[in-house]
Amino acid sequence: MAQRIVVRLTDDLSGAELPVGKGETVTFCLDGITYEIDLAAKNANALRKALRPYVEAGRPVRPSRPRPVRTRIAADPRTVKEWARANGYQVADRGRIPQTVIDAFDAAN
Predict the structure, then answer these.
(1) Which stretches of the chain drop beneath a pLDDT of 50?
(2) How far apart are CA 109 and CA 103, in angstroms?
(3) N or C end of the chain, less CB within 10 A?
(4) Domain-embedded: residue 62
(5) Same domain, 84 and 51
(6) How many structural domains is the chain composed of?
(7) Cα separation of 73 and 43, whole Å?
(8) Which intervals hold domain Lsr2 dimerization (predicted)?
(9) Mind listing the pLDDT tens digit for each residue in 71-102?
(10) pTM of full prediction above 0.90
């Protein structure tokens, strides 16, 4: 026994079933939210016509590329403190290492 899956596209505005090849999915964005709506050609054209004045007055925006996050692998604090003491820096046995010492360590290594 075989199963057959039938997908029926309906116009989201009118609720009418769309014959194969007679409908389309329209994607649009408003207030940062992207929407998709399945429409018959007539309703898709009506949507485009209604939006035309706003589209013509607006300007296209290209999606921005996500900026790469630069990650830095931090050196072991003990190693940095040993290096700092060997190179004349005063650092406490416990606590945060001053940024100037970290920068000097990074520059030297």
Answers:
(1) none
(2) 10
(3) N
(4) no
(5) no
(6) 2
(7) 55
(8) 1-61
(9) 666 788 999 999 999 999 999 989 899 999 99
(10) no
* Domain carrying residue 16: 9-57
Cβ of 84: how many Cβ atoms within 10 Å? 19
What is the predicted pLDDT for the residue at 70?
A: 67
Cα separation values, 19 from 5, 23, 48, 54, 59, Å: 16, 7, 21, 31, 35
- 26-61: burial string, b at 16+ Cβ within 10 Å, e else: beeeeeeeeeeebbbeebbeeeeeeeeeeeeeeeee
Q: What is the pLDDT of residue 21?
A: 83
Identify the pLDDT of residue 62.
85
The answer as to whether 16 is a domain residue is yes
Q: Does residue 19 sit within a domain?
A: yes
Residue type, 38: D
Backbone φ, ψ for residue 16 (5° rounding)? -75, 140
Contact 13, 43 (CB under 8 A): yes
> Are 44 and 83 members of one domain?
no
Residue 47, domain CATH = 3.30.60.230
